[in-house]
Design goal:
Blueprint: E1 3-7, E2 10-13, E3 18-25, E4 33-39, E5 46-51, E6 58-60, E7 68-73, E8 78-83, E9 92-99, E10 113-114, E11 118-123
Parallel strand pairs: 2-11
Antiparallel strand pairs: 1-3, 3-8, 4-5, 4-9, 5-6, 7-8, 9-10, 9-11
Length: about 120
Amino acid sequence: QVQLVESGGGLVQAGGSLRLSCLASGRTFSTYLVGWFRQAPGKEREFVAAISPSGDSLYYADSVKGRFTISRDNAKKAVFLQMNSLEAEDTAVYYCAASRILFRVNVVRDYDYWGQGTQVTVSS
């Protein structure tokens, strides 16, 4: 069992930055791939970024590549999403999730555990 809790969301102006954190409980956290997804009102949940269990492999959606950076600290059971150059289109609830499926990172149904989400609002 893995429990995930996100934090760090808020209101920021376009061009600004936020750092999201995802803190986990459970002894097997370091064996999971962790992803960040987001969901805007009226839209489907979409993949943002993911990181392999060791942290060696990073994956990004094209829409955030070059602006967002995912990282993890397995000793602290934490995953982070540094978001720079934020745009109004980045406004959404952001979720972190954990998956044992390492060969595919962007499919919602592959993820077994989800946090409750944190709201990010970017004003233009």
